[in-house]
Design a protein that fits this description.
Layout: E1 4-11, H1 16-29, E2 34-41, E3 48-55, E4 67-72, H2 75-81, E5 85-94, H3 101-104, H4 113-123, E6 126-130, H5 132-139, H6 145-155, H7 163-173, H8 176-194
Length: 195
């Protein structure tokens, strides 16, 4: 069994918790022992959302330096969460910004993509940045950006199961009206990861 500590970070409205649930349910369907937790999530749009999925561990917590995989649904939150990544861990992140309230109100500056990429590459064995919103729109809905990111993570072998298992979960756990768009989003994310 492949053990994994996965740290999810994004902002409210991006589907971070939906992605967390999808990964947890997929791992369960694959017969893997799963513990999941929400570290602190603000349901309103723009608030920071952090959650965890641990496969093969009893605790739902991930402390600094423990995550095997950091899934960043928002670029600045990826930068902020790098401290959770273990040495040699993997980062899969959205390359497109969704500036938080602190940036919108001028209280904070937003980092450049290349600065975030450089810090992620310094901390990780692999750091992949994917234009999730653009690919989600190509799939048919900007709301599928979360599954674009999951498709990219799966394609580089960062999740403890394969693409077929993830596709089965999309069909099984998402509403039928959303499944086709999200299957396209998975494929586009996987394609971006392999290009």
């Amino acid at each position: 069994m492949q053990r994994a500590r996965i740290f999810f970070t994004g902002v409210g409205g991006q589907g971070t918790l939906t992605a967390t649930k999808l990964v947890s349910l997929t791992a369960l369907d694959e017969g893997l022992p799963v513990t999941s937790g929400e570290i602190h999530g603000m349901a309103q749009r723009g608030g920071v959302v952090e959650s965890t999925v641990l496969v093969g561990y009893m605790s739902p917590k991930i402390t600094h330096g423990e995550a095997d995989l950091l899934l960043g649904f928002e670029l600045l939150e990826t930068l902020r969460a790098l401290c959770y990544l273990k040495p040699g861990g993997v980062v899969v992140s959205n390359s497109q910004a969704l500036p938080p309230l602190s940036v919108a109100t001028g209280k904070a500056a937003y980092p450049e993509l290349e600065a975030v990429r450089a810090k992620a590459q310094a901390a990780a064995s692999k750091a992949l940045f994917v234009p999730c919103r653009t690919l989600a729109e190509q799939a048919g809905s900007a709301q599928s950006a979360n599954t674009v990111l999951l498709g990219a993570a799966c394609a580089v072998g960062a999740l403890p199961f394969g693409m077929e298992a993830l596709e089965r979960s999309v069909r099984k756990y998402l509403k039928p009206a959303l499944a086709e768009t999200n299957l396209k989003a998975l494929a586009l994310g996987a394609g971006a990861a392999q290009s």
